[in-house]
Design a protein that fits this description.
364 residues, alpha+beta, Rossmann fold, OB fold (Dihydrolipoamide Acetyltransferase, E2P), 2 domains, five-stranded antiparallel β-sheet, elongated, binds adenosine-5'-triphosphate, transport, hydrolase, membrane, NA-bd_OB-fold, Multiple sugar transport system ATP-binding protein
């Protein structure tokens, strides 16, 4: 096991800056997930940790040692790629054991090690097969086995599940989580899928345009996002946003929204509310009025799509399906002040100061 530390790490490809001044401390045995939109630099940062790409500036430490100029093969890391990268001409057993062959380990020891790893990953019945004779999920297990057999100090995963269908993704996600529970090895995992990040990570690093927007536990990011980007990226369905006008004591917006609260310092320009924090009520009963455009039935829950104003549509999660006759009609929306996230024009999250005596969500 080993800690990883990135100190002021930047990366340029020509004149294009892809990673900007990243500082990050990952502790021994932690499961850290890099998440962010396509092209934000997740894979580049992971490859800098691996030593597959060198940083343009800054220092990379593994277990406290400066490894900035140490080649990948000597960093004690194992990499699992989205594309599996198996050797097509070798069977599963040789694919898993190949790294040990190159280390000069004897055949009996390799065979024993391969069998134990293959058993752990439930591919011990496939040892004689070639990669082309395996399903996507089996190939990814073999790729993980190949990393595992080397007993690395750090596992690096680059979108390992994105080629798999959703059932298999869920199954493999659980197995990777179990692997981490069993091994307690430091793991860094790249995904663009925020739900994968939420379910796997001890801590999530949210990246955007090569910068860290926020680092925190899944709960911290969900309940206390630092800014609009994190608020909008973490959570499914995405947080509902609305542009508002604000003074230091009052916020008003479309649909008749009035919030008796303000902020000190920066002015609120936008608010956000998560879909599960809103109640659908009769028109006139709520704090806001909107038009119910559509209801999506997912079996165990329903999403109501409510047009607030122009192009602004909020998603409201409801447990009981609203009557179909309401579609196209006005309905009300209710929510507590405590459920409101407020943002400044630069995207920074602001904390609402409710006025003394203001009644919060009297209907709740
Ligand atoms: N070898 C390279 N040469 C030039 N530009 C590169 C190179 N590798 C990556 N980039 C650019 O760096 C940026 C970050 O790429 P990176 O692959 O790290 O993003 P990502 O967040 O992993 O994206 P995705 O989720 O789509 O895989 C992109 O704009 C990409 O085009």
């Amino acid at each position: 096991m080993a800690s990883v530390s990135l100190e002021s790490v930047s990366k340029n490809f020509g004149t294009h800056t892809v990673i900007q001044n990243v500082d990050l401390q990952i502790i021994d045995g932690e499961f850290v997930v890099f998440v962010g939109p396509s092209g934000c630099g997740k894979s580049t940062l992971l490859r800098i940790v691996a030593g597959l790409i060198s940083a343009s500036n800054g220092v990379v430490r593994i277990g406290g040692d400066d490894v900035t100029d140490v080649p990948a093969s000597q960093r004690g890391v194992a990499f699992v790629f989205q594309s599996y990268a198996l050797y097509p001409h070798m069977n599963v057993a040789r694919n898993i054991g190949f790294a040990l062959e190159t280390l000069g380990m004897n055949r009996a020891a390799i065979s024993e090690k391969v069998r134990s790893v293959a058993r752990m990953l439930k591919v011990d019945h496939l040892l004689e097969r070639r990669p082309r004779e395996l399903s996507g999920g089996q190939r990814q297990r073999v790729a993980i086995g190949r990393a595992l057999v080397r007993q690395p100090e750090i596992f690096l995963f680059d979108e390992p599940l994105s080629n798999l269908d959703s059932d298999l993704r869920m199954e493999m996600r659980m197995e990777i989580a179990k692997l981490h529970d069993d091994l307690q090895t430091t793991m860094i995992y790249v995904t663009h899928d925020q739900s994968e990040a939420m379910t796997l990570a001890d801590r999530i690093v949210v990246l955007n345009h090569g910068r860290i927007e926020q680092v925190g536990t899944p709960k911290e990011l969900y309940h206390s996002p630092d800014n609009r980007f994190v608020a909008g990226f973490i959570g499914s369905p995405r947080m509902n946003f609305l542009s508002v006008q604000a003074t230091s004591t009052k916020v008003t917006g479309p649909g008749g929204l009035v919030i008796d609260a303000g902020t000190e310092g920066q002015t609120i320009t936008e608010i956000g509310i998560r879909s599960e924090a809103i109640q659908l009520v009769k028109a006139g009963d709520g704090r806001m009025t909107c038009v119910l455009e559509r209801i999506e039935d997912l079996g165990h829950e329903h999403f109501a799509y409510c047009r607030i104003n122009g192009d602004v549509i909020w998603v409201v999660r409801v447990n009981v399906e609203p009557p179909k006759e309401l579609i196209g009609k006005e309905v009300g929306l209710n929510f507590r002040d405590a459920a409101i996230f407020a943002f400044a024009a630069d995207g920074k999250r602001l904390i609402l100061n409710r006025q003394a005596g203001a009644i919060e969500g009297a209907w709740q």
